Amino acid sequence: MNPPAERETVVGRADSVGPAPTVESAPIPASNGNGTVESASLALTGPSGGLLPRRGPGRALLKRLYYSWAFRTLAFWPLDIVERAIGRTEPLVPPRRLQYVGRGDFEMIGVHWRDRLIRDHRLDGGTDVLDIGCGVGRIAVALIPVLDEGTYEGFDIVPAAIGWCDREITSRHPRFGFTLADVRNRQYNADGVVSADRYEFPYDNERFDLALASSVFTHMRPDGIRNYLAETARVLRPGGRLACEFFIVDDTAAALLEQGRTTFALDHEFSEPSGVSFLGSDPRVPEYNLGIHQRDLEAMTRNAGLELQSIEFGRWSGRDGGPEGRFQDFVTLVKPSS
Ligand SMILES: C[S@@+](CC[C@H](N)C(=O)[O-])C[C@H]1O[C@@H](n2cnc3c(N)ncnc32)[C@H](O)[C@@H]1O
């Protein structure tokens, strides 16, 4: 068993913790992916899990390397070229260098999300879907055969991802739209102009039946999440739902963190301008893996006018991840009907 975590407290604005490494502010779409695709990938391991040390500089270095655009280009471009040359490409699967959203089978993860949305969240052919932080279209692609009358809108902060989705998905399937949001995030878009706590979703009130955020709030600070929940409540129709993921620090997770039994450590404590505190695994880039306290999630949900319908705790915290062995904590929020 690993030794108990030593907790370091970083006081003040979370974004005042020193400059991000050069590779993260590179001009091409701000570096990294997440390392948490296991979120949706059932029992697959990933950079948050099996292959990485639980904490420390080795972990931070590997994360920065693996998810930097420079490294991804060097490492994956040759493979992309070979795969294209021998015809091992699919038009709706992005090249490997663009699959920054984490490890695991790109198509399977999308299919898993889709099936879950159909089974538990009333997704059918006529649903209007919002995909918050849609990345490079992993879930959009899986929804193409389902949405024959409904619509899909996704937005993200990584230009290369939205560019690929526009070119490859919208051009073939005009029901699917993608929007680039220049929102700041130290992991993905360090130079973004808008703060997540101010960003207004570019959609009309009550435009959607269903919203999802797959492995997004695990990379956003609480003040941004608070605004995103309020915006989601605005654009959802009454009775609409938000299916989303978090790393929730409840009493059990806190004890498991102390005992060193979680997949990754959350040793660093940060404080938002609003006064809300949260935990991160990296002192410079809390967004790599960001844990929020359950009481704060509950308060933000209430303040947004949403109801917390269910939480399924995932494997990240050392629990079993439920029947599907999910990695992140899966949360369902509902906008009341009246
Ligand atoms: C791990 S990836 C997951 C992408 C996608 N949801 C999926 O499951 O394939 C996390 C995504 O969240 C996006 N993201 C982070 N902060 C965001 C924000 N404030 N607004 C929108 N997207 C954000 C990142 O750019 C990245 O594409």
Describe the structure.
Helix content is 28%, strand content 18%. It has eight helices and eleven strands. Strands 1, 2, 3, 4, 5, 6, 7, 8, 9, 10 and 11 form an eleven-stranded mixed sheet that branches. The longest helix has 17 residues, at 69-85. It has a single domain (8-334), classed as Vaccinia Virus protein VP39 (Rossmann fold, 3-Layer(aba) Sandwich). Residues 33-34, 36, 101-102, 133-135, 138-139, 156-158, 161, 181, 183, 185, 188, 196, 214-216, 219-220, 224 line the site of S-adenosylmethionine.
Mean pLDDT: 84
**Small-molecule binders:** S-adenosylmethionine
What is the radius of gyration?
19 Å
Q: Could you tell me the CATH topology label.
A: Rossmann fold
Taken as a percent bin, the fraction of beta residues is 15-25%
Quantity of strands, as a count: 11
Would you identify the CATH H-level superfamily? Vaccinia Virus protein VP39
Question: How many alpha or pi helices?
Answer: 8
CATH architecture: 3-Layer(aba) Sandwich
Class of secondary structure makeup: alpha/beta
- Alpha carbon gap, first and last residue: 50 Å
C-alpha geometry: globular
Q: Approximately how much helix is present in the residues?
A: 25-40%
Order of helices and strands: EHHHEHEHEEHEHEEEHEE
